[in-house]
Amino acid sequence: MKKFRQLPAALVTLLLLVAGCSSNSSSSGGSGNTSKPLVIGASLPLSGDFAQPGEASKKGYTIWQEMVNKNGGLLKRQVQLKIVDDASDQNTVVSDYNRLISQDKVDLLLGTFSSLLNIPASAVAEKAGKTYVCPACGSPDMFNRKFKNIFFAQPATAVHQADLFAQWVKSLPADQRPKTAAYPTQDDPFAQPVVNGIKDQLEAAGIKTVYGKVYPADTSNFDTIASDIKNAKPDLIAQGAVFEDGVGLVRSLVKAGYSPKAMFQTSAPSNGDQYSKSVGAANTEGVFYAVSWSPAAKYPLNQEFLQAYQTKFGGVPEEDAADSFAAAQVLQAAVQAVGSVDDQAKLSDWLHNNKVDTILGPLSWDERGAPQQAFILAQWQSGAAQVVLPQNVATSQKIVFPKPNWGGQG
Questions:
Q1: What CATH number is associated with residue 98?
Q2: Is residue 133 included in any domain, yes or no?
Q3: Is residue 213 a part of any domain in this protein?
Q4: Do 80 and 139 reside in the same domain of the chain?
Q5: Is position 22 within any domain?
């Protein structure tokens, strides 16, 4: 203003008007500026222990971005993704989200993969008042902190992920129902609660636990665990597996020559061709898993997502890719409903009070950001993943039981 005082009054007025126009046109909030990209930041485990599902998550985000931009963008702005690698490390993911918020000043955030990483990452977002939608964060520990801005974009939390499996086991005739069970699980804040949920329900139904072990996330050799399981002779194995550990245990069980009557694994079997190729197609037969998404589901945009994925990447999408696509759909719905990204408390408030249609089906959340729907039960049959329960969305009307011996031989 001191400089302006030395200029003629008319010129001062003109300069102020120009400055005001410039300020308005450079604003990053709302929907007024359609030329500046809307930047969404995320940190994903593109290397390290969670690299496989991390890459799948990136693919899901990428397909969503391309589909949104093809249809005019978000708030009439093209969407730009800024995805960095947290190397599957808790300290790195905290640094990443701090940098995305404070230095890169992204407009919006999307979550990372696994509760192990999302728990610390979401604390960064909550402190900054940023809405945080995560595709894989079902641990109960995500939802006991009274956070207002966290939303898990899957149908249910970890404790209830395998409810349909446990209910099916309990529904079997007494002479067919497994009598004993083993519960190996990775030391993971999502996998453990899933297995504990199964264990609690089956023990209450009289199914005796004959083996239980929590192994470190970096375990690579499962021969000893497989040998111990073989010695315990469980009718049923329920494993809390992310991916590599699920593959590792199957390989070791095959090597040990022990095949249970029923086998359930968490995330690992949902990785489609990756799982089948890793354990051998014949060794997938009869393996159960709970799943958030089915390629055959009739939900809006699901077939468009499937086609876009196959065109860009080939093959059938992993569940983690679909979950990430759905997380982005949730964030998109809130932004479109509010009409701005300036006040993220409004985005969170809207999500707490509304349902969002996604390729996983309709999603809604309680006051903690925990979803309130149910997972579906899937099983590998004849080299393909099939939905077996509930019956109204089933792609196969049969359930393979007892599980054939490894290699597909009965």
A1: 3.40.50.2300
A2: yes
A3: yes
A4: yes
A5: no
> 271 with 171, same domain?
yes
pLDDT in tens, 283-324: 999 999 998 998 888 889 999 999 999 999 998 899 999 999
- With a cut of 50, list the residues of the chain below it in pLDDT: 1-29, 31-32, 410
pLDDT of 273: 87
Assess contact for 290 and 161: CB atoms under 8 A.
Answer: yes
pLDDT tens digits for range 74-95: 999 999 999 999 999 999 999 9
| Cα–Cα distance, 305 to 254 (Å, whole number) | 36
Tabulate helix, strand, coil % of the chain (nearest 5): 45, 20, 40
Q: How many CA atoms lie within 13 A of 59 on its CB side?
A: 23
Residue 196: closest CA among 251, 266, 258: 266
Between vectors from CA 150 to CA 334 and to CA 140, what angle results, nearest 5°? 140
CA distance 237 to 219: 18
Looking at 132-261, list the stretches that DSSP marks H as alpha helix, in order from N- to C-terminal side.
163-171, 191-204, 223-232, 244-256
What is the pLDDT, as a whole number, of residue 409? 56
Q: Helix or strand or coil: residue 329? A: helix
260-286 in b/e burial notation, b at 16+ Cβ within 10 A? bbbbbbbbbbbbbebbbebbeeebbbb
Tokens 């073989």 label which residue? 230
In a domain, 401, yes or no: no
The pLDDT score that the predictor gives to residue 270 is 87
Instruction: Indicate the number of domains in the chain.
Output: 2
First to last CA, the chain: 87
pLDDT of residue 4: 32
Q: What is the pLDDT of residue 183?
A: 98
> Are 186 and 106 found together in one domain?
no
Average per-residue pLDDT for the chain: 91
HSE at residue 329, side-chain half, CA atoms within 13 A, is: 27
Nearest to 347 by CA among 78, 133, 135: 133
Same domain, 379 and 256: yes
Position 23 scores a pLDDT of: 35
Same structural domain, 209 and 236: yes
Domain assignment of residue 242, given as a range: 160-293+375-393
